[in-house]
Structures are given as structure tokens and as C-alpha cells.
Amino acid sequence: EAGVAQSPRYKIIEKRQSVAFWCNPISGHATLYWYQQILGQGPKLLIQFQNNGVVDDSQLPKDRFSAERLKGVDSTLKIQPAKLEDSAVYLCASSFPGLAGDRTGELFFGEGSRLTVL
Amino acid sequence: QKEVEQDPGPLSVPEGAIVSLNCTYSNSAFQYFMWYRQYSRKGPELLMYTYSSGNKEDGRFTAQVDKSSKYISLFIRDSQPSDSATYLCASSYNQGGKLIFGQGTELSVKP
């Protein structure tokens, strides 16, 4: 089974520029998440989608970050304009709600997109 | 105060040692508790999953949750160099809901 795919793996931009990240979740997973992981910290949820709809975007800085999930499959996360403090790894994850037993709600993460803002 | 607190380490142990990793949380509404393992430059992967209080064992790994003290623990027996990674504790209110992660503890197991 293919895992969560993310691109690009690495991106270096200057502040005030824009950047976009792409995520393809595991086939059949209805829930998709974008997490931000700053160096030395745990991941922080930016946005959660259930199919096409947004479930939680309370921690998304909406003045500069946007995300969409067209057709309930792939998703893109955009930052415009970028700030120095946006330097982080952006992790995409997906899950299959309703999976029973010990793996209920398990999140499957991609390898992340590492952003450096200069 | 962060909702989930974790000692960032780093923690270095010799091969074969017993490792104890700990987290505390502040919100008594959390019901689900997880440990994720993250290798360098990789995404986190689920290691252990516990609902409410109690112990769960899986091979060399044991997870404990004490809701009365809001304390989460992960024990690794007979630690191996391949266990070297960052261990993240996480909590959520409901199944499939938003995960709140701790800062992660970086573990190094020396041969």
C-alpha cells in the first residue's frame, strides 16, 4: 500500500515570497491533516479536512496560510507571504475514520516538506 | 501552559537499557493517548495507542496512562540502536480527533 506522498521535500525561499505544498493521501482515507513541526517541537495541527470540508482550522494563520482539498483527495497548502517564523517541516497525514480496534484513528504521516525562509 | 508537556531530552542510553519516557497533560477531557516514533527526516509513525487509563504492552514496549495524575509513560525494554529516534506523546478528546503533541524526546541508544 502506497503511503502519504508529499512534494516538494525541500524548499528555500526568501521572506515575503510564496510557496505551495502538495499532498496525496492514502487511497480511501477520508480525513486529511496538515501539521506544522518547528525544529525541536512536536507537530501542531494547522487544518483538518473530512472529505472536501474543513473540520478544524482554528490554528491556521488565515492572513497568510490557505489550504484546499479538491474532490476530497489531494490537498495543497499555500503560504503567502512567508515570514521567517514559517521555517518548519509541513507534515501531511491521513486517516480512515471508523477503523476499529487498537489502530482507531491512526494517523499516517508523509515524510514532510521542509521549508526554510531566509 | 502547554496542554501536553514532554521532557525534550536528549536522552542517551547504552544498548540493552530500560528506557522510560514521560509526558504530563493538563486537560482532563483527553481520552485517547498515543506514542509516535519519528526517525530523522521522516514523518511520525504510530507506536502505541491507549484508551483511558491502564497499561498496554507490545513486545519490548509498554505504555501506561494514569488519568488521576495526568501522566503518560512509555517504557522500552532491552533497548536497541534501532530505537534511536524522537518519541512524541499525543492526546486527543475523541477518536480521529485533533491530536495534541508533546515536544518530543530525542533518544539515542549507543551500541
Would you mind describing this structure in some detail?
The complex is a heterodimer of chains A (118) and B (111). Chain A has strands at 5-7, 10-13, 19-24, 31-37, 44-50, 53-56, 65-68, 75-79, 88-95, 108-109, 113-117. The model of chain A has no long low-confidence stretch (mean pLDDT 92). Helices cover 0% and strands 47% of the residues of chain A. Chain A is mostly beta strands and 118 residues long. In chain A, strands 2, 4, 5, 6, 9, 10 and 11 form a seven-stranded mixed beta sheet that branches. Chain A has a four-stranded antiparallel beta sheet with strand order 1-3-8-7, with no helix packed on it. With 111 residues, chain B is mainly β. In chain B, 0% of the residues lie in helices and 55% in strands. Chain B has strands at 4-6, 11-14, 19-25, 32-38, 45-51, 54-58, 61-66, 71-76, 85-92, 100-101, 105-110. In chain B, a hairpin with a 6-residue loop joins strand 4 (32-38) and strand 5. The mean pLDDT of chain B is 93. At the A-B interface, strand 5, strand 9 and strand 10 of A face strand 5 and strand 9 of B.
Helices and strands of chain A: which structural class? mainly beta
Percentage of helical residues of chain B? under 10%
Number of helices of chain A: 0
Structural class of chain B: mainly beta
Roughly what is the average pLDDT of chain A, rounded to an integer?
92
Overall residue-averaged pLDDT value of chain B: 93
- How far is the first residue's CA from the last residue's CA of chain B? 37 Å
Query: What is the makeup of the main sheet of chain A?
Result: 7 strands, mixed
Q: Stretches of chain B where pLDDT falls below 50 for ≥5 residues?
A: none
Contiguous low-pLDDT stretches of chain A (5 residues minimum) are none
The helix count of chain B comes to 0
The coarse overall form of chain B would be globular
Strand content of chain A: over 45%
Considering DSSP H and I runs of 4 or more, what fraction of the residues of chain A is helical?
A: under 10%
Order of helices and strands of chain B: EEEEEEEEEEE
CA-atom Rg of chain A in angstroms: 14 Å
